[in-house]
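pls ignore typos typing on phone
iron/sulfur cluster + seq
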Amino acid sequence: MLRDFRLQPADIPDFQPQHLEASERDFLKSEIRALLRERDAVLVAHYYVDSEIQDLALDTGGCVADSLEMARFGRDNDAETLVVSGVRFMGETAKILSPDKRVLMPTLEAQCSLDLGCPPDAFADFCSENGDRTVVVYANTSAEVKALSDWVVTSSVGTKVVRHLASQGKKVLWAPDQHLGHYIQSTTGADMLLWRGACVVHEEFKHNALLEMKQVYPYAGVLVHPESPAAVIEMADAVGSTSQIIKSAGELPQDMFIVATDRGLFHMLRKRYPGKRFVEAPTAGDGAMCKSCAHCPWMAMNELGALRDSLLSMGNEVFVDPEIGERAMAPLQRMLDFPVN
Ligand code: 13P
Ligand code: SF4
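k done
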């Protein structure tokens, strides 16, 4: 039987962002604006990073997006340098899709528990033991794992792609997120063999505590990212990627929502819908009890100072072995070409 690849608490970094005064933050932001212009660079940010980095990205012609839109934006933008503010797999995806561009990150230490929980060697063995299956991997994986796959998907297209494969009679090998895999399996009815990885942030959302919260706020809608456990997903009014959660918050009639995803998303939710109220879904604990409750410790490493430093030195460049990049490009391209509507 496949072993459990979920990370242990000791493997999760205990990252504390540096405290900066407002004047220091303003100074860093003005330096970053100037450097982006000088270096012909564009900022490609994820919704979970520092809210001021999100605003900077939008103000300077970059983007704030989910992982699929980040990949498209980076590929289609003309800037010579992409500065990816997110986690490592996002930087690697940008490099694979744009091998001729320079891709920088505020820090190369920003990992993802799903990527870390899917070592390429063990995954290659899993694929060879199940050679009759179509290999579909989540974007939250290394370039090496993507290179072993037939399809790469993000949570915004995973269900549609697997439904399409199932309609062709294909059996699927899925990695690494077992919760997202289970959600796709139960939605599509596809024959799926699941890797046993998990997101350390979303796995902390608790069903019983959410039931109690719903009793306090019976009129609130529930928005859930599908990396969450099945019992939490079952309570959702809408399930989807970060962008899809934002869209649903606008479309659903409720004016209050309990949100089961990283709290970084609240910045955009509150900006887009100032008349609606958003509260965090309950987790196991906070502070010293939990290093990943409702905020990804690796996303938190994207600090203004680190962003300024990488632009100043043109350091923290992301490299992908060209041969691996070429093999990873085909399954990524399949996702980007897949009709979404
Ligand atoms: P999205 O594609 O929904 O932005 O998800 C990326 C991610 O890492 C969620 O934890
Ligand atoms: Fe990975 Fe979870 Fe962090 Fe997203 S929130 S980058 S899935 S560890």
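The first helix runs from residue 22 to 38. Residues 85 and 103 are 10 Å apart (CA to CA). more later
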